Amino acid sequence: MVINYELIAQDPATGARAGLLHTPHGTFKTPMFMPVGTQATVKTVTPDELEEMGAQIILGNTYHLFLRPGTELIAEAGGLHDFMNWHKGILTDSGGFQVFSLGDTRKIKEEGVYFRSILDGSKQFLSPEVATRAQEELGSDIAMAFDECIPYPAEYDYAKKSTERTTRWAERCLKAHTRKDRGMFGIIQGGMYKDLRKQSAAEITSLPFDGFAIGGLSVGEPHDLMYEILEHTTQYMPVNKARYLMGVGTPDCLVEGVARGVDMFDCVFPTRVARNGMAMVHSGRMNMKNKQYERDFTPIEEGCQCYTCRHFTRAYIRHLYKAEELLAFRLITIHNLFFLLQFMRDMRQAIIDGNFGDFRESFMAGYSARAK
Amino acid sequence: MVINYELIAQDPATGARAGLLHTPHGTFKTPMFMPVGTQATVKTVTPDELEEMGAQIILGNTYHLFLRPGTELIAEAGGLHDFMNWHKGILTDSGGFQVFSLGDTRKIKEEGVYFRSILDGSKQFLSPEVATRAQEELGSDIAMAFDECIPYPAEYDYAKKSTERTTRWAERCLKAHTRKDRGMFGIIQGGMYKDLRKQSAAEITSLPFDGFAIGGLSVGEPHDLMYEILEHTTQYMPVNKARYLMGVGTPDCLVEGVARGVDMFDCVFPTRVARNGMAMVHSGRMNMKNKQYERDFTPIEEGCQCYTCRHFTRAYIRHLYKAEELLAFRLITIHNLFFLLQFMRDMRQAIIDGNFGDFRESFMAGYSARAK
């Protein structure tokens, strides 16, 4: 197989595991956080900056690239790696999540999903075959199967029908997957229903995917329910393949996800909040616009080794943000991404050192979701 | 003196000269272009990026920094160099140009200028003494005298009165200038009137400034008139001090300015047009939004050694711009600034090699101000 997961260490008390993911663009350390590069760019930063902060795999959005500039144009450029000049790992989602988020403007049929482009209103169609082909044009190391992300809350009957269709679509994706130099992950759905999660896990993991994702979580449900469904799902997943929890990226959820045996995560959270002036720190979040930082000539977080903290002060970043200078967005983005990537590295080391329980406890004790 | 100009080579046919400018933050090569960092940041780029592209001195705007975050706060941070983490040269304007641009909302008196803040409408006052003190708080290597930039066109009587006031203000600036570890340049005004230019040059250059600027050009007059007044003015300026043409930054004007003996230039042009999607090339400008670049997988300009051209294609930059990705602004800004800085380096080498005439002729033959 073109994607291989290698287990290095495991926390005996929880399911937390440290491993290596072998891909066509290198071997990467897990657990890992994947920065999101929606439109062939992780917003505000260059590939060199991503590399400097230690990013390993980034995520590209098939839905956005399919509509603009078009996956066929990117294929002409030599694929997404060459187009954006990023030569480490790329995972692409299938476009399913975005299409289903369109609500009433899209029509789901057995053959696929009909929708209108947000850019020009033109009629568009995505299906297991189209999404697979688009991702092969992008040339991502890991393509994702085309699935339906079930909204929360959802009726049992709808969730069951949708989950079963996701399995049929997964089979069609594998059939359409012709690039043997690239891998593909299947996605387990099932909403918040344990029997459906078990059924979906059984069906999807029986298919010859290179790894498996847990989809349909972090869609508005309470954290406790997310953790419960996640734990219930991972128990049915094979230990010899990578496990990817989609759309999760706050530090508390990352720790709790790792504790439940997850290896890979992605989320727009660190980049999106950066553009709102929010800097991530171990105690939670700092609103860089706050008056209290006006004359604070210390870095965002003492001891942080990111480019921003090594070069600039809170007072300077606050000034840039208040003055609406674009550099503010970049500096906070760099800090937030570095923070999460370093957080994952620290967590991995704790697993290897046998200290994961202490790490988890001490982090959660100091963390607050409230901005200060 | 704390700022010294050293002549290295001179073109015999024109007044073009190559030199060295010694400042408290290093020795820099002239002729030079100074990127504009209005609000303690050259828009979209970091100091490291400025250094990589070979920037030597950047310009800070006293008017903007005076209003936000306040020059006193920047003094607390250790001065503008430390605040923005740029440790090569900084020249600050006096705020005069911006204040006079406010039009009817400001009142010019002999003691200074009363105006209202564009940020909060508060009453503000700038004068030779206030502007000098503000620049000493910023700690720029080169402060500029507080002057009035005469609009174009202007009546002779107004121009004469204003020019004479600028001389009186220049004397007050020198008196207020107490930081002997920092330099100050005087500014020659006189509008488009040759006798006033001669008078202003005589008066200002008789004062013990570290260098001299030609102000009040590139304010809407035709290029031919600008060149004529410039040439008329530089003949009255001392050869042993740096000459700075304020607010000029298109390549054609830079060549023609150098040909008339100017050593230093600044302009928002390269950074501002970058944010409008315009890339500067030897033949003029490229509108990166144009359809013709959609599948053009070559760099902005073949052979350009800037970071952007070494890493990214026209098609990718066009995509970023169309997708409203902030990275587009940065990549074009980097290219444009590198282009102008390299252009000045090439021009300097041509002067040293005795080829300035050929350089000027061949550049002007291929240059068009129209975007393509």
TrEMBL record, chains A, B:
It comes from the Bacteria. Its EC number is 2.4.2.29. Zn(2+) binds at residues 304, 306, 309, 335. Residues 14-368 form the tRNA-guanine(15) transglycosylase-like domain. Substrate binds at residues 93-97, 147, 189, 216. Binds 1 zinc ion per subunit. The active site is at 93 (proton acceptor), 266 (nucleophile). Residues 247-253, 271-275 are annotated as: RNA binding. Keywords: Glycosyltransferase, Metal-binding, Queuosine biosynthesis, Transferase, tRNA processing, Zinc. It holds the Pfam family TGT. The keyword Metal-binding applies. Homodimer. Within each dimer, one monomer is responsible for RNA recognition and catalysis, while the other monomer binds to the replacement base PreQ1. This is Queuine tRNA-ribosyltransferase. It comes from Allisonella histaminiformans.
